[in-house]
Amino acid sequence: MHARNGHDAHRATAASAPEGDDLLASLESGSAHDSGSAHPSASAGHPHRYRRPLLKSARFWVPLVILLVLIGLAIAGFLAAKQLYGHAMAAKADLEKAIPLVDTVQQQMIDGDSAAAKATIARISQLTASAEKETTGQLWKNAEWVPVAGPNLVAARVVAGSVNDLVTHAITPLTAIDLKALMPKDGAIDVANLQKLAATIETANASVTRIRTSLDKLDRSALIDQVASGVAKLDAAMAKIEPTVTPIHNALTILPKALGAEGPQHYLLIFQNNAESRGTGGNPAAIALLTADNGRVSMTQQAGSQDFHNGRTDPIIPLDPETEALYGTKIGRYIQDSTLSPDFSETAQIVRAYWAESFGTPIDAVASFDPVALSYLLRAIGPVTMPAPFGETLTADSAVPLLLNEVYAKYPDPAVQDRFFAAAAKSVFDAMLTTHAEPKALLTALVQASNEGRLMYSPSDKAQADLLAGTPVGGNMPADNAKATALGVYIDDITEGKLDYYMQMGISAWSGQCQKNDPVLFTTTVTLQNTLDPAVIPSLPVYIAPGRFFPKGDVSTDMYLYGPVGSTLTGVTINGQPVGVPGLTHLGRGAVKVNVNTSPGQTATIVASFNAPAGTYGALEVRQTPMVKPTPVTIDTPGCVPGKK
Questions:
Q1: Same-domain status, 206 and 290
Q2: Domain termination site, one of 206, 233, 258
Q3: What distance in Å separates the CA atoms of residue 370 and residue 195, rounded to the nearest whole number?
Q4: What is the CATH number of the domain that holds 325?
Q5: Range of 22's domain?
Q6: Which of 52, 375, 449, 528 could form a disulfide with 455, with the two C-beta atoms 3.0–4.6 Å apart?
Q7: 8 A C-beta contact, residue 266 and residue 256
Q8: In 10 A of CB 598, how many CB atoms?
Q9: Distance from C-alpha of 551 to C-alpha of 225, rounded to nearest angstrom
Q10: DSSP summary character for residue 185
Q11: pLDDT tens-digit profile of 465-499?
Q12: Percent of the chain having pLDDT more than 70?
């Protein structure tokens, strides 16, 4: 009884022993219990402290389970990472093969090789579908939440899906467009076919918009070099495709109605003379009325500057106060100055008012063309012979010197000159409608003309105007800096002659938009050179160099320099000397007017600086007056990364 009670007492004491001893104590208590012998201290009157066996203790199992879970998670993470790495490498390989093929198929489409383009598209589709599949599994999506790795996985998925979207919904529909269907046949364009093509291009444009939105949302600061490189390659491909898809979409959206699919449309075509520069080109030497009805376009009336009331006391329409402050009232008092503003929609309003006053015909849109653009068309359609009494043959090489220089010696009468310009425009216009030009060559000419601001179109229809807003063909600068940060250089020849035929302009633009400064600095440097040979001055026709207000051969130029939206002028220099001219505001931009005189052989350098508040700025570009000679433009944006704003 005593022994049993002692053992029970020992069990009770052991059961109540405190937790928390070290591993050695646990092992000791376990050994004593297993041998069944009493601890020596028991005989000395000390109660025995019983320890629970290690294998039954939570102190052993909890850490062990946690360790095993961590090891399991590590193994699972390693296997998942290995699997993700395999998916990523497979997608990377597919995309590296697919993205360069986008350039290939675009060139094949331009070359008109539809069979090769379709074969290339089929190959791209296989690669992009495979890449998208590799990056859309559940494991991939779950890992997108992991810090550091997550943004890179998101970017890889976006790139893979975007390229697949681009091929499936943009490039493939574009191959269905037959360029020949856009060309006139028997003097008319099939507007029903244009409407079908418009629906096709709408799909492509929606795809391009989706992709651009997805790319703009990426956190590029978190990307590793390999992923950033893939995004940059897609950016580069989009940079080539967007300028193609968007204009085609806009054109095919506008053209059916513009060509009279819903009833006759009336247009004014102004022919700008670059030998006497104005903001968007030059003095409007001739104006023609075009009528479009169910795809058939005809030139129904022609007029010259002498057919309008010029030199009036007040502008023909109320002017925007900012326009008047910068350009004066002459922009609305002389039709010859109606093209001063860089906003062609202002010109269109003035010209429509003049036409309505003199002829009364309702006008649906105003378009603009110049002799340099006409020479581009002649490259596509070949030589064109003008009708009697002129009988001149216009070629791609002869049109510009004939129309902008030689005509003044051949036909001294200004009224005859205007008729000559009108006859030249009509001859080329008729040839474009009736000559079976190669579609690629004709479209290339039109695209070049529009990109250089030599072909502009300002409709009265708001939906059409919205599509063209901010584009060179719309003839207006962007309303904000989001997609493009545009600087402007526009000139007005006040010499009373045609000496801009000899002027050469060069532009360099600098921006600190990627240098994290507030305010942001923008600088425009313009060189303006009078290339006239002094030896020919005595033989110049009076209409080219009258020498009334300036020495014969000298050119006086009013130059208008624009900063980005929201900017203010900080200073102007001419040939290194500061010029005290006030900064103004026009079109939401800082603007300034300076006058520059150049004698034959002289060059003037004008530098204008603008400050703008810190913010998001799109790629820097320059809009300028299209001149007779090409204007080289250089852009410098230190710190900017391609594809980032």
A1: no
A2: 258
A3: 29
A4: 3.40.630
A5: 2-54
A6: 449
A7: no
A8: 21
A9: 61
A10: B
A11: 998 888 889 999 999 999 899 999 999 999 999 99
A12: 80
